[in-house]
Design brief:
The protein is α+β, with helices and mostly antiparallel strands and 205 residues long. It contains 4 helices and 9 strands. The chain has helices at 11-25, 56-68, 96-112, 141-146, and strands at 2-7, 33-35, 43-50, 73-83, 87-94, 126-132, 155-157, 159-166, 178-186. The strands form 2 sheets. Strands 2-6-5-4-7 form a 5-stranded antiparallel beta sheet. Strands 3-1-8-9 form a 4-stranded antiparallel beta sheet. A hairpin with a 3-residue loop joins strand 4 (73-83) and strand 5.
């Protein structure tokens, strides 16, 4: 199962961002982009890739320990940007330095569990909103500019989530994967055994 560790924005924050994006969806060439679904929006702390089932218990135990040592944090969705003409994203403001330390702890926990995380990039507070198809030749600057002044309401990040990236349901070319939360832990929690809370509906990063 392909897994990553993330912070998931609450429904109110997702609704604020979705409302702002109605303007971006009306821009020229918006229909040539692949927009991520709101139910999949997340901030990735560590991408783990394919994780064998037998490694899951040790991984979850160590992630639970990491969660108890960090947070909660106050964040807000804010601004927007692009990676060249490939990806449009919104960012975050708030306790980002502390969230970066949580990401470091999560990657260390994964290594100790024998599940090395992708170390190519450090934590960047970005939530992926849209991707340009290969050779689409779409200018993404107008979409980033449409988000430049966006500042959402503050919200508490209280939960660390282990999320599965699942193949598209239909198999239609170009369809994006969907996500399912398979385990979660309260940040700053006091549980002694590191066991995860019950998985819920999954929260693009």
């Amino acid at each position: 199962m392909r897994l990553f560790v993330a912070l998931l924005p609450p429904p109110a924050a997702i609704a604020e961002l979705a409302a702002v994006l109605t303007g971006a969806h009306a821009l020229p060439d918006a229909d040539r982009l692949r927009w991520t679904a709101p139910e999949g929006w997340h901030f990735t702390l560590a991408f783990l890739g394919e994780v064998p089932d037998e490694a899951r218990p040790g991984l979850e135990e160590r992630l639970g320990r990491a969660a108890r040592r960090h947070g909660p944090y106050e964040l807000r969705l804010a601004g927007g940007g692009r990676y060249g003409d490939r990806t449009v994203w919104t960012g975050a403001e708030g306790d980002l330095a502390a969230v970066g330390r949580l990401a470091d702890s999560v990657r260390a926990a994964a290594r100790r569990a024998g599940v090395p995380a992708d170390e190519e990039h450090g934590f960047e507070a970005h939530l992926t909103l849209a991707r340009a198809q290969r050779r689409a030749n779409v200018r993404l600057r107008p979409f980033a500019d449409a988000l430049a002044d966006f500042r959402g309401s503050p919200w508490p990040a209280t939960t660390l989530s282990l999320v599965a990236s699942l193949p598209p349901r239909s198999g239609v070319p170009g369809e994006q994967p969907h996500y399912r939360t398979v385990a979660s832990w309260p940040l700053g929690g006091t549980a002694e055994d590191g066991r995860p809370a019950a998985g819920g509906p999954g929260g693009a990063g």
